[in-house]
Amino acid sequence: MDLLSLGAAALIPFTLTCFIIELTPGPNMAYLAVVSASEGRKPGMATVAGIALGLAIVGAAASFGVAEFVARSDALYGVLRWAGVGFLLYLAYDAWRDGTAAAEPTGKTPAFYFRRGLFTNLLNPKAALFFVTVLPSFIVPDRPLLAQNLTLSTIYVGVATVVHMTIVLLASTLEPVLNSPSRERMVRRGLALLLAAVAIWFAWTTRR
After folding, report:
1. What secondary structure does DSSP assign to 11-41, as a single string?
2. Domain of life, per the record (predicted)?
C-alpha cells in the first residue's frame, strides 16, 4: 500500500467522508451503546475489535471484487440483507431478555462480544456497498488499483475504529450508574428497543 499513490487531494476528502458516515446512526453504533452501557468498557472494546475485523474482511473482499459481485446479485444481496436484519433483531431480543434478570456477572467472555461485532459487519450489506459505491470515487486514475483500494479500506477501518472506541468510552460511563438492577433493566430494555428500531431502519434503507 502506498499513500503517495493517492495524495492528499484524495486522502483528506475520503477521511472526512468516512468520519461523517460513521457518525450516522447505524447497527454498530446502536449495539456498541447497548453493550458498553450495560456490560462495561471491556466488552465494548472487544466488540469494537470484532467490528474492525469484519470491516477489514469486507474491505479486502471488495478490493478483490467479491463485494461488487454480491452487490450486483439481487439474490445474494437479499440473503445478506435479511440475515443482517435478523441478526440485529436477535441482538435486540437478547438485550431485552438479559434485562429481565438482575444485574450480575453474565459469564460472557470478550471473545463472545468479539464474535458478535464480527458477524454484525459480515452480515451488513451497507458495508459492502460503501466499498463498492463510495470508495471507488476516490480512486486516482492511472495508478495501482489494488494498492489504492487496500489503502482506502485501511483508512476507513481506522476512522471507524476511532469513532467506535469513542462511543464505547462515552457509553461505558453509564455503567456505574446502572448498578441498581431496576435501572440496569430499564436502560437495557430501552437500548434493546433502540436496536430493534435500527434493525427496521436498516431493512428500510437497504431495500432495492
Report:
1. HHHHHHHHHHHHHS--HHHHHHHHHHHHH-H
2. Bacteria
